[in-house]
Write a structure and sequence with these properties.
single chain; 401 residues; alpha/beta; D-Maltodextrin-Binding Protein, domain 2; 14% strand; globular
């Protein structure tokens, strides 16, 4: 297998936190909650994020998972109960039952719709309820800065040595001292092969064929992802802090704006399913779900590069049941268990041993595991420091006009 290297910035390159966005949402029978968005903005802008953003949606599969993200279940006392706060794509009935049978510990899983929902609840006192959370890469960095995560005793968590090279020392958490990488993915384009005259291979196709695709394309409702795709197309980093490069991306997006149907992270799925859309900017988990159920569709990681994201498992400092939390992590990342769970949910793994146990058709799926030459051009959404204000200003102009 290739080493899955992709570019990114180390923490030493910037002292401020990263500000990416995102969301995920398989569109099938399960209702999914959204994810991957954080902007260090004014309070008004942050309120707008909470009201309007629908990031990567994930579905509830187990009866024990609560879907009300505003009022999670109250904690139960005792060593035989573990409260988990997660994206529901990572929880299903088989995983919960297997853990309880293996350890005798009952799991109560509440789900959230974005990293920011999780963060807000933790900051509002919810941290005293949960012993396990599933923050995305940039949120791990933020929670470390806020001193919200326990430093992990790596002797109690097997498999660190089995992580693929890219996840051995990630920039969001050097040495994985506060988190365990669990799964990862990309951001790209989903298109309908019957509605598009020739295959889409890069972001530039949206501009070059905007007359053909007019009002039949959507972009994510996410400033960093949308600006990032324009930056990558222009040959810049998706996390540039250069005002001239950011302005150039904004001007390119202005050219495309009249052809855009909507900025949406979630709503494109139903439109795509009935043939109202030809192309959608999407996260790999959404795109792959759509493609697996509809052979007319194709997911592509653009040739000029895209965003790569990672989701992790972590223990809050205020966890009421740390011992059970370690048992959950150990059980979840054990290669046989992880392969069964990720195989069912069709998610990639950062663990070499788990990778060897995944079904061959998943490992050989280039949507799940893009070839090295594509990943070499991909980047994490890194910290942009004070330049976030520039991104926000252009995003407001782009989406409000």
């Amino acid at each position: 297998m290739p080493p899955y290297r992709f570019s990114g910035r180390s923490n030493s390159e910037s002292s401020l936190r990263r500000n990416p966005g995102g969301g995920r949402s398989p569109y099938s029978s399960a209702s999914r909650a959204s994810r991957r968005r954080f902007l260090q903005l004014s309070s008004a802008a942050f309120s707008g994020v909470l009201l309007s953003n629908c990031a990567r949606n994930i579905g509830t599969t187990g009866s024990s998972a609560a879907t009300d993200t505003s009022a999670a279940s109250p904690p139960s006392s005792g060593d035989n109960t573990l409260h988990v706060y997660t994206w529901s794509a990572y929880i299903d009935e088989d995983l919960l039952k297997g853990f309880e049978q293996d350890t005798g510990i009952k799991v109560i899983a509440d789900v959230y719709d974005s990293n920011e929902t999780m963060l807000a609840r933790m900051q509002a006192g919810g941290g005293s309820q949960y012993s396990i959370v599933y923050p995305s890469d940039y949120m791990v960095e933020l929670m470390i800065e806020e001193e919200m995560l326990l430093e992990i005793d790596q002797d109690r968590v097997p498999g660190y040595a089995d992580l693929l090279e890219q996840w051995q020392d990630p920039p969001y958490d050097p040495g994985n001292r506060h988190s365990v990488p669990y799964t990862w993915g990309t951001t790209g384009l989903v298109y309908n092969k019957e509605l598009v005259k020739k295959p889409i291979t890069d972001w530039s196709d949206l501009w070059e064929r905007k007359s053909e695709l007019s009002r039949r394309m959507t972009l994510l409702n996410d400033v960093r992802e949308v600006m990032g795709m324009a930056l990558k197309m222009l040959g810049f980093s998706n996390s540039t802090q250069d005002p001239k490069e950011i302005e150039a991306a904004y001007k390119k997006l202005q050219e495309l704006k009249p052809a855009i149907n909507a900025f949406t992270t979630d709503g494109w799925r139903d439109q795509m399913a009935v043939g109202d859309l030809a192309v959608a900017h999407a996260y790999s988990v959404d795109g792959i779900d759509m493609v697996l159920e509809n052979p007319q569709l194709e997911y592509v990681v653009p040739s000029s590069g895209a965003t790569v994201w990672t989701d992790t498992i972590a223990i809050p400092k205020t966890a009421p049941n740390v011992d059970a939390a370690y048992k959950w992590i150990e059980y979840s990342v054990e290669p046989q268990t992880a392969a069964k769970n990720l195989g069912r949910l069709k998610l990639p793994t950062p663990n070499q041993k788990t990778l060897t146990l995944l079904p061959k058709e998943l490992v050989e799926n280039p949507d799940l595991f893009p070839p090295e030459e594509i990943l070499a051009k991909c980047e994490v959404l890194a910290n942009v420091g004070e330049a976030v204000d520039i991104y926000d200003r252009y995003w407001t102009q782009l989406t409000s006009a």
